[in-house]
TrEMBL record:
<keyword id="KW-0732">Signal</keyword>
<feature type="domain" description="DUF4142">
    <location>
        <begin position="44"/>
        <end position="175"/>
    </location>
</feature>
<feature type="signal peptide">
    <location>
        <begin position="1"/>
        <end position="24"/>
    </location>
</feature>
<protein>
    <submittedName>
        <fullName>DUF4142 domain-containing protein</fullName>
    </submittedName>
</protein>
<dbReference type="InterPro" id="IPR012347">
    <property type="entry name" value="Ferritin-like"/>
</dbReference>
<dbReference type="Pfam" id="PF13628">
    <property type="entry name" value="DUF4142"/>
</dbReference>
<dbReference type="InterPro" id="IPR025419">
    <property type="entry name" value="DUF4142"/>
</dbReference>
Length: 186
């Protein structure tokens, strides 16, 4: 499963150029009113938002699966908390992006879909271990991205979002390690 986590990271990085073009938000009265007040995000900030949106979708998907499939109560509670955290983060990010006229996609990449499908074929302790390894690796990889965005974002609201979320990701990483995840590779 570690191979899948590495593939996920590589796929996410390779998709950066694809997400660099901001998608205009649908012209609804609410989004138009929000978008009219703030300038568009920079290319770098838009790319960050798109990548985080895809990651949130993936994390929500596999965490919901783990919450239903796992047998250990502590892993189930962790998965439920992870799904809730990523759902909350996705809502906050979506609201922030819409204020800048950016509509975020909510689809997993083909690589993420493949990893989620592979995870569905597993059960028992193998499933739990692989899920926790994915959580630890994803949190570790995302943590660096969020810390960088917290330092370099052009938009002050996105900068604050990235800083606050980095703290949450560090907690998520620590919790997954306590539950038995392998130490992430860099």
């Amino acid at each position: 499963m570690r191979h899948y986590a590495v593939c996920l990271l590589c796929a996410s990085v390779s998709l950066l150029p694809l997400f660099s073009v901001a998608h205009a938000a649908p012209a609804t009265p609410a989004s138009t009113a929000l978008a009219a007040t703030l300038p568009p995000l920079t290319e770098s900030d838009s790319t960050f938002a798109e990548n985080v949106s895809a990651l949130n979708t993936f994390e929500i998907n596999i965490s919901n699966q783990a919450a239903e499939q796992t047998k250990r109560r502590k892993v189930q509670e962790f998965a439920q908390a992870s799904a809730k955290m990523h759902t909350t983060n996705q809502k906050a990010l979506t609201t922030l992006a819409l204020k800048h006229g950016l509509a975020l996609h909510k689809d997993m990449s083909p690589d993420e879909e493949q990893i989620a499908a592979q995870l569905k074929t597993e059960s028992g302790s193998k499933f739990e271990h692989d899920y926790l390894d994915l959580q630890a690796q994803a949190a570790s990889d995302a943590l660096a991205m969020f810390q960088n965005e917290a330092e370099s974002a052009s938009d002050p609201d996105l900068k604050a979002y990235a800083a606050a979320t980095a703290d949450t990701l560090q907690t998520n990483l620590n919790d997954s390690l306590k539950l038995g995840a392998s130490k992430p590779t860099r």
